[in-house]
Design a protein that fits this description.
The complex is a heterodimer of chains A (179) and B (425). Chain A is mostly helical. Chain A has eight helices and no strands. The longest helix of chain A has 43 residues. By secondary structure, chain B is mostly helical. Chain B has one domain. The chains are: A mainly alpha (179), B mainly alpha (425). Chains A and B meet through helix 1, helix 2, helix 3, helix 4 and helix 5 of A and helix 1, helix 2, helix 3, helix 4 and helix 13 of B.
Chain lengths: 179, 425
């Protein structure tokens, strides 16, 4: 369990770094592309469609793949009044419920994403830029993001279950010692 | 099944499920089970909502704001305002309001403004005798200025939903922003009337701080001037402001390093993912509602009972105000504006009036618990428990917000004056 746990930890943090790197690369690249487009249009009266289209089309690759990482770091906006009011076991149970709902929602949205990717692959739709990209590649960000979200939601769910189990074990040990 | 979808949404929201999942779940149930639409519709709707070119301006303005914070621009802005008005009673608090308004004219991001200006001024205010909670509360209350003074992310989102002109929406925010700042300054003067004023800065110091702040002061001139001169679109203006922030941070202030740029990029992609996940799923839920013909039926009903434009705006404001307690600003816009839009058109309410009037009350949601991102960010910036900041916010800052919102509803001429004068497209 320890070995598997450590290997997973390494994989999880490695994936996080890769996702952040990819998102930062797209963000930085988009800024440069749009700026260069302004300069070339204003000073040289020449404009390339991909400079305007690529930042827009690749935005989903910033949004969706990071959803899981942000869940792990509790960065998503939520009404956290109930979890804040609770403590101990009750708080853990609510957290488990939250992760279960996240899992349910993510599985549903993953299914929707897979359907859309299949649909666009079948249609063979392409982007209308100089350098053509199949549209299904763009849509792939959606199921990819929700697959990663499922992974991180499962990680958090398992962690919370282990924490409940170990607390219960400690409590029963404490009771036995007290007797 | 539609009722089940709504109840599921309320239940999951209450237990603390992330809001984007709440919308995704309840929208999914309504679309797939209630309306029998194909699954792929969900993805198509979210993609259409998130890949609008104009929305790209939001991450770019956030990036610009982050670069300006890390590049030392915010400190210079604070320096110039506190050297000119810091000696008045409540002068530092007034400087905070002015700096927030000015930073809003550069970045468009409320949270960036709170971190940038609050991060610099809250410790100074505490040192000079203000309570830390008061300083943090004022920071949160004046954050709404950043959402009004152009460029504003709220205006970009409103225009992405309604198709209104972004340039006009930017213009419409100027006077209401100044009125809001004026109301806050009046409140500060009243609250700080017994405080000892600080010694005034020497004129040499003032000119020096002004000289150092010139690149920062030039930023809105470049951004807004470029848009209104027709040189670039709002999205391009946002990219230009990022490059300007890099130039200023690296060559003028020499504070922006590669590491800081990387940090700014990371801050930006985190904020982008959070905001756009809400946009994606909220727009999907709003489309699900429109399939139920709820907006049209509501419009017909309100027209049949003879609702006036004024009472429509008051009702809309009340709905936004109540939703603001539970939902974040972006999803409120995506959930309410598509429903209000047909009514506003039928009642001949100017879209810019609708934007500013409802925006004032949606903005109050930043301060109303339990979901009050503005107050939480200010508390985190001041390193204070959120409840102390919320206590300091009520009742006065909260009242100012309501008075300002009512002014916006009852005085459309103020909102429309500059857009009508400028005749922008």
């Amino acid at each position: 369990m320890g070995k598997i746990g450590n290997a997973y930890k390494k994989f999880s943090s490695g994936l996080e770094n890769v996702l952040f790197f990819m998102a930062c690369l797209i963000m930085g690249g988009s800024t440069v592309l749009i700026f260069v487009e302004v300069i070339t249009r204003y000073f040289f009266q020449s404009s390339r469609a991909f400079m305007e289209e690529y930042p827009r089309l690749f935005l989903p690759y910033i949004i969706f793949p990071l959803l899981g990482v942000l869940l792990k770091h509790e960065r998503h906006i939520s009404t956290d009044l109930l979890p804040q009011m609770l403590q101990g076991r009750a708080k853990s149970i609510v957290k488990i419920l939250i992760y279960l709902f996240v899992l349910g929602g993510s599985i549903m949205l993953l299914g929707a994403g897979v359907e859309a990717v299949k649909h666009f692959r079948m249609m063979g739709e392409l982007s209308i830029t100089e350098f053509v990209i199949p549209m299904w590649v763009i849509y792939l960000a959606f199921p990819l993001g929700f697959a990663i979200l499922i992974l991180y939601a499962l990680e958090l769910l398992v962690k919370e279950c282990i924490s409940i189990a170990s607390t219960a074990k400690q409590a029963s040990k404490g009771r036995e010692e007290a007797r | 099944m539609i009722t089940f979808g709504i109840l599921l949404g309320i239940a999951t929201l209450a237990i603390g499920v992330p809001i984007f999942i709440v919308f995704g779940l309840s929208g999914g149930v309504i679309v797939s089970m209630g309306l029998n639409l194909p699954w792929s519709t969900i993805t198509q709707i979210t993609f259409e909502a998130t890949t609008k070119y104009i929305l790209l301006a939001i991450p770019l303005f956030i990036f610009a704001g982050a670069l300006m914070i890390d590049g030392g621009l915010a400190q210079r802005l604070v320096g110039v305002f506190s050297s000119f008005v810091g000696h008045l009673r409540g002068g530092l608090a007034i400087s905070l309001v002015l700096a927030m308004a000015f930073f809003g004219a550069i970045s468009g991001s409320i949270l960036a403004a709170i971190v940038a200006i609050g991060g610099v001024l809250i410790p100074i205010m505490e040192e000079k005798g203000y309570s830390k909670a008061y300083a943090a509360a004022l920071t949160a209350a004046s954050a709404g200025l950043a959402s009004l003074i152009p460029p504003s992310n709220g205006a970009i989102i409103f225009c992405a939903i309604t198709g209104a002109s972004v340039a006009k929406a930017f213009m419409a925010g100027i006077l209401p922003g100044l009125v809001n700042a004026g109301l806050l300054i009046i409140l500060i003067i009243f609250q700080c009337r017994k405080m000892e004023p600080l010694p005034p800065a020497k004129w040499k110091e003032r000119w020096l701080s002004l000289y150092h702040a010139i690149p920062a002061i030039l930023s809105p001139v470049i951004i807004l001037g470029g848009i209104y001169a027709g040189i670039f679109t709002p999205t391009e203006a946002a990219a230009v402001s990022c490059v300007w922030a890099v130039v200023v941070g690296v060559f003028f202030y020499r504070e922006l390093t590669w590491a800081k740029m990387g940090k700014s990029l990371k801050t930006t992609v985190i904020a982008t993912s959070i905001i756009f996940a809400l946009i994606a799923t909220a727009s999907f839920l709003s489309v699900a509602f429109s399939y139920t013909r709820f907006p049209q039926n509501l419009t017909n009903f309100l027209l049949s009972v003879g609702v006036s434009p004024l009472s429509f705006l008051l009702m809309s404001a009340l709905v936004c105000f109540i939703l603001g307690f539970f939902i974040e600003v972006v999803p409120i816009m995506y959930l309410t504006i598509p429903i209000m839009l047909p009514m506003a058109v039928a009642l001949q309410v100017d879209l810019l009036h609708l934007y500013i009037a409802t925006g004032a009350f949606i903005g109050l949601g930043l301060l109303t618990p339990p979901v009050c991102v503005g107050a939480y960010t200010a508390a985190a910036t001041a390193r204070l428990p959120a409840n102390l900041v919320l206590k300091a916010l009520f009742p006065w800052f909260f009242l100012v917000g309501i008075v300002y919102g009512l002014i916006c509803i009852f005085w459309p001429e103020m909102i429309l004056l500059i857009p009508n004068m400028m005749k922008v497209g």
